[in-house]
Design a protein that fits this description.
heterotrimer; A alpha/beta (530); B mainly alpha (311); C mainly alpha (364); A: Rossmann fold; 3 domains; six-stranded mixed beta sheet; 19 helices; 23% strand; B: mainly alpha; ABC transporter involved in vitamin B12 uptake, BtuC; globular
Chain lengths: 530, 311, 364
């Protein structure tokens, strides 16, 4: 069977294909009998929500995991990709979502990683190849620059070079745009187009409809580990983004009804929120706030804003522009270097986490297991992690375990946390249920200000919807809310105002009006409006 | 006080310092390799001790110091092999395994020594010295620095070789990656486990040779538990040296001087109690740690087992 | 901390739910017995290689350490410092603090008690003297841990190295104190002035076991209760299990680090004090029983459980007492016990690893 690529060439055999691939992890089937073909000179997008099985599939193509059943076919021949080295040797290069470069080494040193270990470094041939690939990609980077000092976009370009170093058959990219500015996304698009012209088979993983439409020649849709349908190149080139959206929804859910809430979560419908009463006194006042930075971190620089009850302030911006510091300094986990923080008229600049908590401040971290909970401790203990030592669950320093467990059972029932028991180690729960536990813990009766950091990161559609509903609902009850997110759609859906973090500064706050997206896009690149 | 500045005192002090510092140098260099690759080798004390025992036995029965060093190195590698298997391959807790191995080999070597030598306590003949012509005739320093067992010169050369290796070879790149971002090394197609295992085995070899030197050259015999913390001092040296082998050399030299103080003072007829002098090196380490507390740099992935695909 | 991974800690659940109870007991017993058996077998092979009979050795150790009344009393006496030091290590390790400075802390505290006791007994009744000495020793142990604790809390300096260095420092310093400062001028062998037997910790009933065993058992139980039932115990376990979560939860990690380190070293200091007050009455020059290292495997084998620690301490004490006897009678030196302990721990780590692997496979 002959396949016509977007470039008009005719290819008989896919560069790489998977046939009947199945992969299981404890408790979940990550890939269920998936068969796909990837042709040279074509950008094939794998689209699906978080948990659809995309990352697992490419982990196997990259040689990091093995399928439980099924085959991987290279130019029609079955191969076993037992290790990353094997994949690389076959010309399959993968760029993962999180940069896999050694920050302390230079660009050229990173690219030379994997060379013959019994030899000394010979830069000349590596530099030659570097120039070759730079020309191919159309980028210019200093090979002797330390990787840790490059921008994320440049680091990604180095990653692409590394992926193509030993061969340019197949290039796989996993969620490549999540860390990029809008300009960076455009640059990436140019690079991919050039590679496509050269006949590279490109596999692009994404959960964003817009990206799939703008980059893809062919879209295959995955849901819950299964392949549910594809949009062929011939059709796709003629469809608008809205049409693509409809088609994808149809493939996923069997109808093109855009009204269902699940769908809304996927495509991020813009909602209009009721105007906030700006005559109220702000619950949180931040003035000229700054933190001090350690190596590799972006500190907060001179940030000021007000937050009123019932208001949702979105904080947009590419990861690494000071958002983490902002969340931590507001919560009290990080000391204030300069400036002040005032809650309900009280200056809390020098007070710690506990004191701010007592004044109603809550912080839901983005790192659920790394920071928000202790994975090996029970759900019950984690639900009271921030109340240790205080009545009514503690009496004179002694833990009243019966009450703790009773409290836990109540919370589990009330918030529908799926767990075998309140004594189960919380690390065993799914991401969505851990998030439910965190929400239960933080959004208590006397919460007044809540900071959400990437609240829907890594969750499936159902739990994304749930989390967003909770956020809206608690704001409706009068909670002053900050939502930090790298997903602009999410903020456009939830927030009343959206501020943009750039290099540690809050360079602009925009009302969530129809032209907000464009303004925010500009701000994210550092362009301050006149 | 003048007696401290006499030639004989200085010569014997510096000579003693080199002899005492050598095992520390080798242990420190070895540990530096492991730490670069992200392995905190607590078991290095056991590696040195077993190396001391094997080295002594080999030298005793064969009359060859070089064979002694070789067997010492192999002995250290045996212990290191266990670390590589249990900690790197299987991912068991490095600190617990390290302490267990140290205790175990302390007991084992003491046991073997009891069975073989406790009645006779044999000594080796003094180690052969290679005096570097010309340099060895320099007053004071000549006899102190340039008339040693050849292993000393090799160790110094090794120091500079490692400096070159870390910066200008693929091995150096691999070690650096294994220690600071193992996932990157894995994605580049190099086995993190193999790199770390190789690093640990090399550490074992060097530590074992250091132990053998301590027994055969430093003391001339093997005594149970004789390393007495030398391996741990090697860990300290590696930690303070921040990736530069030359700093290990300096540290070992300083340590060697304080260790050699006791005998040198006795030679000079000054009567400071041994225990006070013995406190010196450790007090010095604490002082340095306090001063440089903020700057002690360890690779980020130190002590964490690497599992592919774990998020 | 489990042996099979860096970051796991056992859940605080006081008991496991329902029907799995019996199976989990059986499994737990097997998981402990199997490594013991393997260690004894492999150790036995080593004995054979050295020309000694394992059966003769083991039966002699058991007989002398456990089944012989005099030996059993010696075993109980030996348990005292081990229990107290184990308590100290449990506190530290659970908080993620590797306090490896036990030998130095023990010895310095012992010397302080040995120096104070003969002096204080002149001016106060025995019970008050005992209390004062123990308090002083606890303080000394805690103070000796301050530097490593502060370096860790403030600068994140690895406490393995600092505590080890302080230990070596402490051992030498203790010797200096014995030989120069507190030396008894009337004896030929350098030692501190002797505390007469009647002024030491009283013997229990008709035995040779001193009251220290009661103190030690009480401390272990108290530590167990503290860990499982108090806010402080919970807080330090959070610091050990996930320091970032501790910060997130608003805990004062620096203070907890220092407090836990001091508590741990204080308990180890208590061990030194009680050992002098109960057994020796004096510290001789160059005396160092070096329990510090051997208690580390003990605590791991007992999975940081206070009650399990009592069982394993008994086991270790039997080995040590029986082993000391065997050294004299059968000619297997005391060092063999070290080998056995190491084998025990290695096999425990292996069995635990295999168990986890087996469980994972069963789940799929």
């Amino acid at each position: 069977m002959v396949h016509e690529t977007p470039m008009g060439r005719r290819e008989a055999v896919p560069a790489i294909a998977v046939a009947g691939i199945t992969k299981r992890y404890p408790g979940v089937v990550a890939n269920d009998n998936v068969s796909l073909e990837f042709y040279p000179g074509e950008i094939h997008v794998l689209l699906g929500e978080n948990g659809a099985g995309k990352s697992t599939l490419i982990a196997m193509l990259a040689g990091m995991q093995q399928p439980d059943s099924g085959e991987i076919l290279l130019q029609g021949r079955a191969v076993r990709l037992g290790s990353p080295r094997t994949s690389l040797d076959h010309g399959i290069g993968t760029v993962f979502q999180h940069v896999l470069l050694v920050p302390s080494l230079t660009v050229i040193e990173n690219l030379m990683l994997g060379g013959p270990w019994w030899q000394r470094l010979r830069k000349a041939p590596a530099l030659a190849r570097f120039q070759e690939l730079s020309a191919l990609l159309g980028v210019s980077i200093d090979p002797d620059a330390q990787v840790g000092r490059l921008s994320l976009g440049q680091q990604q370009q180095v990653e692409i070079m590394r992926a193509l170093w030993r061969g340019e058959q197949v290039l796989i990219l996993d969620e490549p745009t999540s860390m990029l500015t809008p300009q960076g996304v455009r640059d990436l698009g140019e690079v991919l187009k050039r590679l496509r012209e050269k006949g590279v088979a490109i596999i692009l993983i994404t959960h964003k409809m817009q990206e799939a439409h703008s980059f893809g020649d062919r879209i295959s849709v995955l849901r819950l580990g299964r392949f549910v349908g594809a949009i062929e190149p011939a059709q796709l080139s003629r469809m608008s983004q809205a049409e693509v959206t409809d088609k994808v929804i149809q493939l996923m859910f069997g109808s093109s009804d855009r009204g269902s809430a699940e769908v809304a979560a996927l495509i991020g419908d813009h909602r209009n929120t009721a105007p906030i009463d700006m005559t109220q006194a702000p619950r949180l006042i931040v003035r000229h706030l700054s933190t001090s930075a350690e190596r590799g971190e972006c500190p907060v620089r001179d940030v000021s804003f007000d937050l009123r009850p019932g208001e949702i302030l979105g904080i947009a911006g590419i990861d690494g522009n000071g958002q983490k510091h902002l969340a931590e300094v507001l919560a009290g986990q990080r000391p204030v270097a300069e400036g002040e923080i005032v809650i309900n008229g009280e200056d809390v600049t020098d007070r710690g986490v506990e004191a701010r908590r007592r004044l109603g401040l809550r912080y839901i971290t983005d790192e659920r297991l790394g920071e928000g909970t202790v994975g090996s401790f029970s759900v019950a203990t984690n639900l009271v992690l921030k109340e240790i030592g205080r009545p009514p669950l503690w009496h004179k320093g002694l833990t009243l375990w019966d009450k703790v467990h009773l409290h836990a059972r109540e919370q589990i029932r009330q918030h529908d946390i799926r767990t075998p028991s309140e004594r189960t180690p919380i690390g065993k729960l799914s991401g969505g249920n851990i998030q439910k536990a965190l929400l239960a813990r933080e959004l208590t009766e006397n919460a007044g200000i809540v900071i959400f950091n990437k609240p829907t990161y890594g969750l499936d559609l159902y739990n994304i919807r749930l989390a967003r509903e909770r956020i809206r609902e608690s704001a409706g009850r009068g909670l002053a809310t900050i939502v930090i997110s790298t997903e602009l759609d999410e903020l456009l859906e939830l927030a009343d105002r959206i501020g943009v973090m750039f290099q540690g500064r809050l360079i602009g706050i925009v009302d969530n009006a129809p032209n907000a997206e464009r303004q925010i896009g500009l701000l994210m690149t550092g362009v301050t409006p006149a | 006080m003048d007696v401290l500045l006499t030639q004989s005192f200085l010569t014997s002090l510096i000579f003693g310092a080199v002899t005492a510092g050598m095992p520390l140098l080798l242990a420190g260099l070895g540990e530096q390799i492991s730490e670069k690759a992200g392995v905190l080798n607590i078991g290095i004390e056991g590696m040195m001790l077993f190396g001391a025992y094997c080295g002594f036995v080999a030298a005793y029965y064969s009359d060859s110091f070089w064979l002694g060093y070789l067997c010492g190195g192999l002995g250290g590698m045996v212990v290191a092999g266990l670390v590589a298997l249990l900690c790197i391959r299987l991912g068991l807790n490095q600190i617990v395994i390290g302490i267990s191995l140290t205790i175990g080999f302390e007991g084992l070597t003491a046991l073997l020594h009891y069975v073989q030598f406790s009645k006779t306590y044999p000594r080796l003949s003094p180690a052969p010295i290679l005096a570097i012509p010309g340099l060895a005739d320099v007053p004071v320093l000549g006899r102190a620095l340039f008339a040693h067992n050849p292993l000393v010169y090799l160790a110094v050369i090794l120091t500079f070789f490692l400096g070159w290796l870390f910066r200008k070879s693929y091995v150096g790149l691999n070690l650096e990656s294994a220690g600071s971002k193992p996932a990157a090394l894995d994605a580049a197609g190099v086995s993190v486990l193999a790199t770390r295992s190789a690093a640990v085995l090399t550490t074992g070899f060097l530590a074992g040779v250091g132990g053998a030197y301590m027994a055969n050259v430093g003391a001339g015999l093997f005594v149970p538990f004789m390393t007495n913390g030398a391996g741990f001092i090697g860990i300290v040296l590696a930690m303070l040296a921040r990736g530069r082998p030359v700093w290990v050399l300096f540290g070992a030299a300083l340590f060697g001087i304080s260790l050699a103080m006791t005998t040198a003072l006795q030679v000079a007829g000054i009567n400071i109690p041994t225990d006070v002098v013995q406190m010196l090196p450790f007090a010095m380490v604490m002082l340095v740690l306090v001063i440089f507390a903020r700057h002690s740099v360890l690779p980020p992935a130190l002590g964490l087992p690497y599992v592919r695909g774990e998020r | 901390m489990s042996l099979a991974s860096e970051t796991q800690l056992e859940t605080l659940a006081p008991h496991r739910p329902g029907g799995k109870f019996a199976r989990s007991i059986g499994g737990a017993v097997l998981r402990i017995l199997l490594p013991v058996l393997l260690a004894l077998v492999v150790g036995g092979i080593i004995l054979l290689a050295l020309g000694k009979s394992p059966f003769a050795y083991y039966s002699y150790v058991l007989e002398r350490g456990l089944f012989n009344w005099i030996g059993f009393q010696a075993t109980l006496t030996r348990m005292v410092p081990l229990l107290l030091m184990a308590a100290g290590l449990i506190v530290a390790f659970r908080a993620g603090i590797w306090n490896l400075g036990g030998d130095g802390q023990f010895l310095l505290a012992a010397v302080v008690t040995a120096a104070l006791a003969p002096a204080l007994i002149q001016v106060m009744p025995r019970s008050l003297m005992i209390v004062c000495c123990i308090v002083a020793s606890v303080a000394v142990g805690a103070i000796w841990a301050l530097l490593p604790a502060l370096l860790k809390a403030r600068y994140g300096v690895n406490e393995i190295i600092t505590s080890l260095m302080m230990s070596f420092l402490g051992i030498s310093f203790a010797n200096v104190l014995v030989k120069l400062v507190f030396r008894d001028p009337t004896t030929t062998v350098p030692q501190t002035p002797d505390l007469p037997v009647e002024d030491r910790l009283p013997r229990l009933f008709d035995t040779t076991v001193h009251a220290g065993i009661l103190i030690a058992l009480a401390v272990i139980v108290l530590v167990h209760l503290m860990m499982t039932r108090t806010a402080f115990g919970l807080k330090l376990q959070i610091v050990g299990a996930n320091p970032r979560a501790a910060v997130h939860a608003g805990l004062n990690v620096a203070w907890l680090t220092v407090a836990t380190f001091a508590l741990s070293a204080g308990l180890i200091g208590m061990a030194g004090s009680v050992e002098i007050l109960g057994v020796w009455g004096t510290v001789r020059a160059d005396w160092n029983p070096a329990y510090g290292m051997i208690v580390v495997p003990l605590v791991f084998l007992a999975r940081f459980n206070g009650i399990g620690v009592i069982g394993f301490t008994l086991f270790f004490a039997v080995l040590m007492i029986g082993g000391e006897s065997a050294a004299r009678r059968i000619g297997v030196p005391q060092h063999y016990v070290l080998v056995l302990v190491a084998l025990l721990l290695l096999f425990l780590a292996l069995v635990e690893y295999l168990d986890q692997r087996w469980r994972k496979r069963v789940k799929d």
